[in-house]
Design a protein that fits this description.
Blueprint: H1 2-23, E1 40-42, E2 49-51, E3 57-59, E4 67-70, E5 73-74, E6 81-83, E7 86-90, H2 91-98, E8 100-104, E9 111-116, E10 125-128, E11 133-136, E12 139-142, E13 148-150, E14 153-157, H3 158-164, E15 168-172, E16 190-194, H4 205-224, H5 242-252, E17 258-259, E18 263-267, E19 271-275, E20 281-286, E21 289-294
Parallel strand pairs: 4-16
Antiparallel strand pairs: 1-2, 1-21, 2-3, 4-5, 6-7, 7-14, 8-9, 9-10, 10-11, 11-12, 13-14, 15-16, 17-18, 18-19, 19-20, 20-21
Helix pairs in contact: 4-5
Length: 307
Amino acid sequence: MRLRKEVYLVLAVILILTLFIIFRPKTKSDIDSTNLDGIEINTDTADSYIKFADNDRVGLSNPAPMFLIVNGSVIKNPDIKAIDGSAMIPAEKFAEIVGAKLVVSEKNGDEFNLKADKKKDLPGVTFRLNDGSYEVNAKSEFMAGKPVRDGRTVYVPVKSFFEAYGYTVTYTNGKKVKADEYPIIPLYQQLMVYKYDTNKKPLTKDEAIKKVQDELKVAYKANFNKKYKAPDDSIDRMNPSREDEWRIKINEGLQVKAENDRYYVIPVVYDFYVDKYTGEIYSFYRGQTFVYKKFDPKAPGSLAFPG
């Protein structure tokens, strides 16, 4: 009889643990990597272009168009235009980014609906050409600017439509910026748009620095063929060797100089962009061609200036 009770108790505990695992509240969710790795931007005005990791090269006009960056990824061909003082984006492109479908009203060719997949828990939006009001989940609101048709393309205000979908929208000219709104692409105009799962907590600055330190220690071993050792009193700090210089830099010289919604910026011999959500580390080389590349600490010359 006693044995039977113990068996029931064990089964009850197993059942409780199983139910807890199935129905426990989710504390975090995965956030995908960005498309920053492999992006190149040629800043030569005679032949400026942006090339993505898939080798798709897109020519840039002079002056360059406004870039659109969503959750840390550079959007390909956003076709943003300034119309009547408002930044406008093709409605089809907007729908593609947020995961909605653009549908023309059967009753009125100037009225459009943005229908979202119900699984994505996104709002429904109805808008009309040349009308400054729109309906978000059947509630009438006003937008900054009016949707217009340019040729065959329907444009909608960037700020109003992204904000209707819960995104934060910031603008920078890429030159005069705040330390917490550092441009992902320096020198160029860009709209930085973002929305993250609130259950997913970003890295702290200290955690980001620790990740860079760990990667640089691996790079140290790969470059000097010896395990990293913290600097001690034997180092000539006034005239350190290249090896000792790196020992000091790794141990004492790392700090976050700026950040934006997605990355911490930590300067070494080039800037490191540390993804706040995935922990991935990208090197950014700023020459005539901007190069963004995932940092490989074991690669030859990983501690050398890439220019």
